[in-house]
Amino acid sequence: MTPRALTFAKIRATHPGLSVRECAERAGYAKAGAAVRGFELLRDDRVVRAILHFGALALAKAAAELSERMEESCTNEPYRWNRFDRRAIDKLRAETKALGERLTKMEELYEVALHRALG
After folding, report:
1. Helices assigned H by DSSP within 15-85
2. What average pLDDT score do residues 85-112 get?
3. Interatomic CA distance for residues 19 and 15, integer angstroms
4. Residues 6+ apart with CB under 8 A from 56
5. Whole-number Å distance between alpha carbons of 29 and 39
6. Average pLDDT, integer, range 9-38
């Protein structure tokens, strides 16, 4: 796999909101053919495996950060959950939603790879 293809996989995994074209452009492919090249890369099993790998790493990092923040919010002396902190709860809710979106994206990639392997 080329370094640009690996970069594409890392960008695709860590920025699920970007389009395939945007990921390819950020990886260094020419704007004119970035969308076509990006979709070609998504047909390569090595690239799909790399996306899953980088996605799993990003997910593990996000889960660890979320867990750390939740623990911190419960143990900080000034707060200790003595009062209702709506902003903190909203932030945790948003982070949990982002984590769920990453999981959904990974599931979609697994399904595509599975259909390719079986088909």
Report:
1. 20-26, 34-42, 45-75
2. 76
3. 9
4. 106
5. 12
6. 93
The residue range of the domain holding 92 is 3-118
Cβ proximity of 6 and 54 under 8 Å: no
Sequence-distant (6+) residues with CB within 8 A of 9 are 41, 47, 50, 51, 53, 54
pTM tops 0.85: no
Return the number of other C-beta atoms located less than 10 Å from residue 25's C-beta. Answer: 19
Long-range (24+ apart) CB contacts under 8 A made by 27-36 are 28/4, 29/4
Overall number of domains in the chain: 1
Task: Give the per-residue pLDDT at 23.
Answer: 95
Q: What is the pLDDT of residue 87?
A: 72
